[in-house]
Write a structure and sequence with these properties.
Elements (H helix, E strand, L loop, with lengths): L14 H16 L3 H10 L11 H12 L7 H13 L3 H14 L8 H9 L4 H18 L4 H7 L5 H9 L10 H10 L6 H15 L3 H10 L6 H7 L15
Helix pairs in contact: 1-3, 1-4, 4-5, 5-7, 6-7, 7-9, 9-11, 11-12, 11-13
Length: 249
Amino acid sequence: MSVTGEVTPHVPFSTLADTVLERLTATYAAAADPERAEAMGAYMKDVAPFLGLSTPVRRPLSRTVVAGLPRPDEDDCAAIALRCRQLPEREYQYFAVDCLRRHARVCTSGFLPVARHLVATVSWWDTVDALAAHVVGALVAADPRLTADMDTWIADDDLWVARTALLHQLRYKERTDTERLFAYCLRQSGHPDFFIRKAIGWCLREYAKTDPEAVRAFLARERGRFAPLSVREALKNIGARAVSVPELP
């Protein structure tokens, strides 16, 4: 059990993970920049300590870490991700997210509890959003039975779990389950937190690239349910046209 009350999944045995973590910790630590680390931590509201590796520095280091290694299977992915999550510095968690994005196709529906653990622990937008769109979304697309889990997640008390449910269809385009998307937005329309309100606007704005009229019609019909932030985000690229959405009092 984690300090947040989230059940920690079992870390599978993986010799590949052993090699990756040995290389990763040595490579990242050698490139640490304490001055930059302080600024990065402050920017991310001190959600975690940092090594001070900016993305342009970190990505080539990550390629060095995995150079010559075989492609991971699902157990390898789980072991790498969970062991990176156990390390305090945020860059190790970025490495885990990048690994999962790259290899999400090897993961089955049984990986969802690992993904949830990653979402619900040391939570902030910098890891949650990529996990939602590129990992959880990929799992649900590959196994539609997992939509039942998303129906549960959208009502979760953990705002990051609910945000993941909102954003999991972000890359679906024409494959978007529009009815579910709109229902999720309505389910969380009264949420007081900025990150949920922003996610509502973001997922609607993204779907508007595929079907702008559906988004306009939805907001015209439900205009009194949403915070101004959500509406502005949703209509940012398509405009309201004939849709009138007043500010909430």
